[in-house]
Design a protein that fits this description.
It is built from twelve helices and ten strands. By secondary structure, the chain is of the alpha/beta class. The protein folds into two domains: about 120 residues, Arc Repressor Mutant, subunit A (Orthogonal Bundle), CATH 1.10.10; about 120 residues, Trna Endonuclease, Chain: A, domain 1 (3-Layer(aba) Sandwich), CATH 3.40.1350.10. Strands 4-5-6-8-10 form a five-stranded mixed sheet, sandwiched between helices. A three-stranded antiparallel sheet has the order 1-3-2. A two-stranded parallel ribbon has the order 7-9. β5 and β6 form a beta hairpin. α1 crosses α2 and α9 packs parallel to α10. The longest helix has 24 residues. About 30% of the residues are buried.
Length: about 280
């Protein structure tokens, strides 16, 4: 069996810049990932390869794209916010293409001059806690994961959330009502898939078949990810809408709601001298 070839962090540098330009100069990690995959015409087979099955569902492409972002950020072309939104800097907006080897050399030389662990802590640390959380979710019992989903939805504004989990219920794990601004409400049914692999288009279609006539919207939650065909099927015109929450979005939401995730803000003091101020006295 031939090994599937994958893009390297270097080959994704220019597609990343192009993707951000296509998206108006900024994007979430998920938007950037999808756009890069489309630009590079990556197949489902390439996108479904897991980086480290023992540490969660992050794919190799996601992992390598994380390093691509780090290299371009160090080179001064990208910046990111605490909410996970990445954007082109002024230099990035003015740069159409880069020479990947040059960016790589610049990064490596910079790392030699700085405290390596401190510099890597942002992205590498981000990957570490995500992997640890996904690994923990995969170790949960099925009914415990359903209870976590129930709590997650309640914390997100759902009411009357019930976990059914009955066999022969078309794969439906629960239902609830989402209220918007206290004026509008939508009946939602959800399904939880707690595994490492990818949810495919057939599973999305099966879920839609089970929800027809029973709810306004469907919510499919997984610790894994979704194939490109599955994502397209979920938003297909003329069919009941299904919202998708993959492992990356799930851990982000758990962190945001502080459900089992504790975030500590560590402040550092930086002192600089304004020589011009003294000399102007």
């Amino acid at each position: 069996m031939n090994e599937i070839s994958l893009p390297t962090y270097k080959t994704m540098m220019n597609p990343t810049l192009q993707a951000l330009r296509n998206l108006g100069g900024s994007a979430t990690i998920e938007e950037l990932y999808n756009q890069v995959a489309e630009i590079m015409n990556l197949s489902d087979e390439q996108l479904e390869i897991i980086h480290n099955p023992e540490q969660g569902s992050q794919t190799k492409v996601e992992y390598r794209l994380g390093w691509t972002r780090s290299y371009l950020k160090k080179y001064g072309l990208l910046e990111n916010s605490s909410r996970g939104v990445w954007a082109l800097t002024k230099k990035g907006r003015q740069t159409e293409k880069v020479e990947p080897n040059e960016v790589s050399r610049y990064y490596q030389n910079s790392m030699k001059q700085e405290a390596t662990e401190d510099e890597l802590s942002e992205d590498d640390g981000e990957l570490t806690w995500r992997a640890e959380l996904l690994k923990t979710l995969l170790q949960m019992e099925p009914d415990a994961f359903e209870r976590l989903t129930q709590r997650l939805l309640r914390e997100s504004g759902f009411i009357q959330v019930q976990v059914t989990g009955r066999s022969g219920d078309g794969g439906i794990d629960g239902k609830g009502i989402m209220r918007l601004s206290g004026l509008l409400s939508f009946h939602v049914i959800f399904q939880c898939k707690r595994y490492k692999g990818s949810v495919n288009v057939h599973q999305v279609r099966d879920f839609r078949g089970a929800m027809v006539g029973r709810a306004d919207k469907g919510l499919l939650i997984t610790t894994g990810n979704f194939t490109k065909d599955a994502t397209r099927e979920a938003t297909r015109d003329g069919a009941p809408a299904i919202d998708l929450i993959d492992g990356e979005l799930l851990v982000d939401k758990l962190k945001e709601l502080e459900l089992g995730v504790i975030t500590k803000v560590v402040e550092t003091e930086e002192v600089s001298i304004d020589s011009n101020w003294f000399l102007s006295l």
